[in-house]
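Schema walk-through. Below, the input block comes first and the output block second. Nothing else is stored per chain. Lengths vary across the set, and this one has 230 residues.
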Amino acid sequence: MHYRDKLRQIPLGILTGLTTLVLASGGSVAWFTWHALNPTPPVAEFPKIDIETDPMLSLPKVADPVTAPSAEPTVPKDTVNQPAAAEVSGQIYWLKDEGTNLKLVAQPITVAADASPSEQVTTAFKDLLSKAGDPSQEAFTTIPEQTELIAATVEADGVHVDLSGSFESGGGSAAMVGRLGQVIYTATAFNPDAPVWISVDGKPLTLLGGEGLEISQPMTRSDFNEGFQL
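--- output ---
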């Protein structure tokens, strides 16, 4: 039987189904064939990273306002953390018998640091006139016990000391020279180079003792050491 005659003998429905199947199969084969010849490159997969974002980091940073340093008073380095002294040291002077002569010896005293120069000298003389000497040094005074301090001041031209009239009474020349030395050295305890002016009952002292020791005014320690021998 001829081929075409055989096709005519196949029912139309079956023929249609076969045709559809062939077309479908052919399409699938063609699709697989095309993908085999043109493979799609694989897509790379990267690990997922979770990033936590601080909301403050996204804001622009505002610079802190610059404050000008406040001016502070300059303090000398040598006074920083230095406690204020409550007292200052001075000396009063006594006489000591060396056998052939007398010698001036110092006894330390303390005076309030906030005292004025005049107050310091006044304190020293009150201490000197209130004692008979310094037993620890076997030292004594030749200033008469009744002598009182009328005034003691520190002025621009030196230290001024005014004593009562008893200062001139009694004693020989050695005693007179010794008490003069006590006054000169005690008056200059806080300033050894200062000149000293001595008055008795308000009058400048020019002669001392019965022998009339001449007293120059003013007198320094150097003047006393050059003019008088103990």
